[in-house]
Amino acid sequence: MKRNILLVEDDTLMREFITDYFKKEQWEVHEAENGRQALEIFEQTIVDLVVLDIMMPEMDGWSVCRRIRQKSDVPIIIITARAEDDDQIMGFELGADEYVTKPFSPKVLVARANALLKRMEGTLGREGDILSFGDLTVNKRAHAVTVGGELVNLSPKEYDLLIFMMKHYGTVLPRDYILNAVWGFDYFGDLRTVDTHIKKLRAKLGSEERLIRTVIRSGYKFELEP
User: Fold this and answer.
1) Taking the CB of residue 219, how many other CB atoms lie within 10 A of it?
2) Spatial separation of the C-alpha atoms in residues 135 and 128, rounded to whole Å
3) Cβ pair 160, 170 in contact under 8 A
4) Confidence class for position 60, pLDDT limits 50, 70, 90
5) Which of 99, 137, 160, 201 is deepest in the core (most CB within 10 A)?
6) Contact at 8 Å (CB) between 177 and 135?
7) What CA–CA distance (Å, rounded) separates 55 from 40?
8) What domains lie within the chain, and their CATH numbers?
9) For helices 61-69 and 35-44, angle between their N-to-C axes, nearest 10 degrees
10) Is residue 83's pLDDT more than 90?
11) How far apart are CA 115 and CA 108, in angstroms?
12) In sequence order, what DSSP letters do the residues of the chain get, joined into one string?
């Protein structure tokens, strides 16, 4: 699956330079040039990582980090021209996961981003090898899916789709976002591919098809009914 990054940097040349490196590593980059724009994009886009400059117009990086942490645990890398210990401590207290001081190599930044996500995914994997919602249980280590104790035979793409939706529990997922994330940006199919696989997945989940909810004119949501 292609990873999505929100890159928040007011320096146009620096932002473009960093973007090029992330794109070379097959990241999808969403760019913001100030804090307010960053929060608008964050509200409208599902991202796997935020790279956040501190000194910006309209709203500084500290404020953006604080606002994001009020509603999300997404990994955050702070970049700044200041190297003081107090700044680093403040960043970590606000919930940042990494701290990078300018000047830095964009290649190293991408490597640190990849390492951070691998580390966090590894932690989540160890803590959540068994996922259960209602009568649906997924053993991620064994790639085994059961409903009411009965094994469900999913195709690899159906399994990827299920895991992706479970990972984004409670979030409305637009069809185009599902298509890009699960099938890849170079896939030439259309949105009916998503609908077809959702239909097949629901049929195989039997009584637990209720977990995959259709959100009219928006997409799909994986969620237990209230």
Assistant:
1) 19
2) 17
3) no
4) confident
5) 201
6) no
7) 18
8) 4-125 (3.40.50.2300), 129-222 (1.10.10.10)
9) 20
10) no
11) 10
12) ---EEEEE-S-HHHHHHHHHHHHHTT-EEEEESSHHHHHHHHHHS--SEEEEESS-SSS-HHHHHHHHHTT----EEEEES---HHHHHHHHHTT-SEEEESS--HHHHHHHHHHHHHHHHHHHHHH-SEEEETTEEEETTTTEEEETTEEE---HHHHHHHHHHHHTTT--B-HHHHIIIII-TT----THHHHHHHHHHHHHHGGGGGGEEEETTTEEEE----
- How far is the C-alpha of 84 from the C-alpha of 193, rounded, in Å? 51
CA-to-CA separations, 167 to 121, 151, 173, in angstroms, rounded: 11, 21, 11
CB 71: neighbour CB atoms within 10 A? 9
Q: If you search the block for the tokens 């932002």, which residue do you land on?
A: 15
Q: In this structure, what token pair is assigned to residue 186?
A: 């170079």
Contact present, 191 and 179 (Cβ < 8 Å): yes
